[in-house]
Sequence to fold (445 residues):
Amino acid sequence: MNPNIPQTDRKRVVIVGAGFGGLQLARKLSARKEFQVVLINRHNYHEFQPLYYQVATAGLEANSILFPLRAVFGNCKNVHIRVTSVTGVRPADKTVDTELGPVPYDYLVIATGADTNFFNQQNIIEKALPMKSISEAIALRNRMLQNFEDALSVETLDEREGLMDVVVVGGGPTGVELCGTLAEMRKTVLPRDYPELDFGMMDISLIESGGELLGPMSVQSQTHSLEYLQKLGVNVRLNTRVKDFDGRIVTMVDGSTIRSNNVIWAAGVKANPLAGLPPDVLGRGGRILVNRFSQVQGFTDVFAIGDVALMAEEKWPNGHPQIAQPAIQQGKLLAKNLLHWVRNEPPVAFTYRDLGTMATIGRGLAVVDLPFFKFQGFFAWLTWLFVHLMAIVGVKNRLAIFLNWMFNYLTYNNSLRLIIRQKMPRGNLDAMQEKLSDQMEVAKT
Fold:
């Protein structure tokens, strides 16, 4: 196979990853005649990651938070999209290796984001449920709904509790928002769907290794989020670290245990750098060390932006928070700086403009930290809804999400609690089983 990218006299910018940073950069460069843009992504769509948890809890359909890349760049003749995986980079040859073949570049931008960090705990890797992609969110939704179906038929109380109880590990925005939504469902939606089950016995536990929830936010927001969750009936355990999970029992470092078949892991992320970069350019959490122009340490033609990049500023000595805004701002500035470089003009150093942080806990409950103002409650919830709605790519998606949210708010109901699984052709299943068998044989030897 061959990527089949036409040769031109324009400077070729290869962008790996179509998250917030990569998409922003590609959009800014798409109208520039100086560049040929090659956007490489594993999927043919952009994912709006902050709303994964709403897909996982059947609040939104997956296509509401996805947007086709070709719909973004349909009229841009200088943008070439290739849906494939990158296997590595060869900086000396100025080439990116993909499953479609090699792609030469003049400038390379790594915008590969971050993935779940299980901290090398093998049992948790195998048995816990992550939520860092749309496919994982759908798998979590299927698992939770199937659990309630199975709980109707089990014979013992222990089995029923194991299926219904949920443990969420990680007290950041994802963990807090997920627990709040599950608690709302336990109160309003699930008893109506499953009248044979007693949801008074469904326990929702949030485990956080630190001393507070929402670590980067203000003390005011941390306190209110804890109060909101406790009022919703969530069992919050701070200063508690999960040691093990065998599929039935969650074990803490202090020796205490929780009976649950369901552990949702939201306890941290690690960067996704490309293979082939020198080891000395990788910093804490696998993030790529870059300067204030997003150039990878030791290179002038290789850049990294967003969650995968570690850029130190005076106010952010350990790098920027791994959220959407730093990626978007870095993508915008890098587009301007690439134009400066091809015109032999001096580039502009990046300075992060903190627009604030927010999290929603439940129906009408949220916390918002803005640089000039901090507030909580119903108005904060409306602010959270508006900001996320405006950040969604595509008018159709915004309208779909708005209608879903309004319908859910007015009726406490939706029609998205569906268990939908992919069915593969028999030949594909046989091939997968054969491959798995071969891997097991190799492992034994």
